Amino acid sequence: MQTDPNPNKSKDSPTNSDSTESTQSPSPFPDDVLGQVLSFLNSDKDRSSVSLVCKDWYNAERWTRTKLFIGNCYSVSPQIVATRFPKITSVTLKGKPRFSDFNLVPQNWGADVHYWLVMFAKVYPFLEELRLKRMKVSDESLELLATAFPGFRALSLMSCDGFSTDGLKAIATHCRNLTELDIQDTDMSDIDDFNGGWLSCFPENFGSLEVLNFASLDSEVNFDALERLVSRCKSLRVLKVNKSIMLDQLQRLLLQAPQLMELGTGSFQQELLPGQFGDLESAFSNCKNLQTLSGLWEVTSIYLPVLYAACASLTFLNLSYAALRSVEFGSLLAHCPNLRRLWVLDTVEDKGLEAVGSSCPLLEELRVFPADPYDQHLHSGVTESGFVAVSRGCSKLHYVLYFCRQMTNAAVATIVQYCPNFTHFRLCIMNPGRPDYLTNEPMDEAFGAVVKTCSKLQRLSVSGLLTDLTFEYIGKYAKNLETLSVAFAGSSDWGMQCVLEGCPKLRKLEIRDCPFGNAALLSGLEKYETMRSLWMSSCNVTITACQQLAREMPRLNVEGQDGMPHLLFSLFDRQDLLLPSLMLWSGTRAVKMAGEKQSELDHSFLLNENMRND
Amino acid sequence: MEGIMSHENDLNLKATELRLGLPGTDEPTSKNNKRAANELVEDSELLKGKSDAKAGDIETAPASKSQIVGWPPVRSYRKNVVQPKKTEAETGNYVKVSMDGAPYLRKIDLKIYKGYQELLKALENMFKLTIGEYSEREGYKGSEYAPAYEDKDGDLMLVGDVPWDMFISTCKRLRIMRGSEATA
Hints:
heterodimer; A: 614 residues; alpha/beta; Monooxygenase; Leucine-rich repeat, LRR (right-handed beta-alpha superhelix); 21-stranded mixed β-sheet; 21 helices; B: alpha+beta; 6 helices; 7 strands
């Protein structure tokens, strides 16, 4: 057992340490006390900091870490992970860059979870939780997951693809201790769905589910099986069904599970007989614990009142699939005084947002989605006045995602005066490059106001007509900014340089269709090592510059796409051509190649540069 | 016969097919494999360099400005699910309006008016006339025009007798009557 006799050991010079450093013997057991203390640490950031202190702490930390978070699956190889962390029970893995949500990333880019699962099966047979985002997950992977991990409890798939209901069948059949099956934001339109019978594959004596979310699945499910499952799972607190579930079926489910805290309804469109309406109403009124409500596909105004009795304790209302108008929306809101988070469609218009401002004083998050994103009809949806109305009434607002077709600098300035605490400000003026529609000026001052006033800003998405001035402002004021999304903006390299030089906490930068080129790209060399990733598409970056970048920064993975992802050092014959898209990320030489070959190269984490074992 | 058939195959019918896009590129079949298509991609140097990239991946300029790939940044499952179907709440309630003596009819959307006042004002504007005061006893006084409507049963009724909500659900067409006909 190694003890650390010198508590004042310098943190800056781990190689200065005493006997612990010189004993190369692989005694893997950490200091008892240190280990105990560190096992209380949950935050990944804290654990990373701890592991940098010295070798002892690095070791103690790695033995007590149980939750693994990998923000970019290509930043590190499974082998390295397995070597470093022996006791992992919970894994979160994220794959494709966010712009893949919008069809900007080739279909076969990668992020297949399978080779990770193969490693996990060998090294972490006691794995309990797996949370994946934007990864490719095949049915074969789901089968492996279901059979190789006897204690497996929780599966969460967000924006993943590659699987079908066959894979879900395997999970239902084999995972005896499953508490969570959460499938979110999956575009199932490309996926063949073979049967709704996967739900019937849960054994008759199985009752441990607490979370069941299949809202984004397209297909019919076996309702009897679902009803029986819900009645068996007494601890069920989250149930989100898909569109195939009708209102009368929903009523029966609610009777079985009045304890629900989160409910996603099915389709709300069915013609109800008078008796059924009353039954549904009373079923909802029995749900006293409801905090989250979503679904509500095709809801019509006459059925909204059945919800009223269940809304008193609602903190999150997701109406982003319900094309409501301002009047019925306002009536519903009047019953939801405790709302903290609200997602709506812009069919509610400014009038509806005024109702938000007056009915929801506790609101912290608002997302307004466009019902008809390609509609050229300039008068539909919401405008700047709706946003101002919300900000006036909701002083606690700190997260906003707002799609609109017109905006003014003055309105945004007013908004941030009312709500100076924005942490997430995502404004999408849907016509690219649109100026302030009243003054015809660029929207620079709007975003200038945001970054100057909102010192806690972590995430920013800009839009509208923007010059380099916007980016000067961002670089100068947005000192807590971690994520920046830019499209159709900027005038020159200078804009991007300002951001790279000025934002110390920047982690993710995604840029499309901007006049930023090689000078900008190359100005951020050291910066990229501290970031999770940079994405640039349809900008002015050429292949030569990327090759230079790859040469000068060997610890960066640099990848270009022009239809097939391949690494730039192979492109010797392409000089001075514009690169359609570029992604770079820091990591070890866990180089991504077609076929997902694992890295054979060095075995240390990039971020723990000073802990290299060589 | 066969000779003619095989000749047909040589006609390269595709070349004469009308479609959007520069010659030499195929219509992309799958949305998911598209590359970003915008003005920058049209750089001819770039097109040359892409000679060994998949043909289907080269996107020509979008047919219209609104067809920019991946913009606005809305998830595809939102686009599919949320096609705002024209519910009854959204389609207008258009009815024909005829005026005695006018050469052609007009159409108005009853949904946009909140009550009789607004409707009558709109009619006055549309036909450049004044309609006069309504009273239950005497219909419309003070003008030679009176608004009437044809209801579900085909009967000609005076506008204003029934509550507004009932009116807009039973009114099938409007008629502005004139002169001696207008007085009951």
